[in-house]
Amino acid sequence: MILIIHMLLPLTGCGDEEKISKELNIRLGWQANANSAGQIVALEKGYYARRGLKVNLYPGGLTNPSIQTVGSGKDNIGFANSPNQVIKAREAGVPLRIIAVIHQQGYHAFFSRQSAAIRTPQDWMGKRVGIKHGSPTYLYYLSTLRKFSIDRSTITEIPVKYDLLAFLEGNLDVYPGAITNEGVSLELQGLALSRLTMEDLGIRTWGNVIFTSEKMLRENWKEVRQFIVATLEGWSYCFEKNHEQEVMIYLKKHMDKMNLDKERRALELTNDLIRKRSPGSINLEDLQWIISHMHENGELKTPMDPSEVMDGSIMESILP
Questions:
Q1: Per-residue pLDDT tens over the stretch 40-52
Q2: Among the CATH numbers 3.40.190.10, 3.30.460.10, 3.40.50.620, 3.40.50.2300, which is that of 2-105+206-318?
């Protein structure tokens, strides 16, 4: 892992081992799974504690969305499943900032059975497409229709929740979900899938991003930096194939139910997405594209400068 080693070399001699003794409440973007393996490893292997942090990891999701818990001050730092959530909160006046990007490429996609011969968005016309309101996939769905000039009235939209039953029973032709979650689950059930990822569709986005409040950055910048560094160390550990068994043991401690085969495959996919660029780095060109695209699609009322929603000072202090 030359990339990670080089990334962390500049920390030597910078006083990063100084004890801070700070307790941090961290909200995941979803329930604990392979997408959060890096922070779970950092917790279990003592990377946070080594940097003077007592970290409490809490599951996120529909009942405890990280945008709300961090925005209200209940939690100190959060993970979001896409940058769009933080950007929209920022427009609404919530003083949040993206401070690092974990998945350098988004992990959402649109799945169909290979036998259905749905290869392009144009093939959605006349088909039953699942719609998840409140999910990043809904925004990507609207973006796709606009990008490919598809008449929405030609599609039968079926609201779905976060379960695969409608698709498995054949009541749905296209299912929106994560390649690191639903996609793996469907393939493990023996389904031969076709998938259209955001990259396939020419839609730039990220997966998990780390964000915090402006207040937290002002008052606890060093502690936030320590958290980011330890989290990246956790992900660096996950990248090594010979660590897989140990990572699975740590994941199992934080999951109510665990399908070992699913999480192993999901971790492989997650690692690939994270290593598209330097882990943690914030690509300003991507962020500008995402913001502009959201405005064009009516997701944002007014244009926004990337500097309004991100703070790159921590990653600039880490990356060589």
A1: 999 999 999 999 9
A2: 3.40.190.10
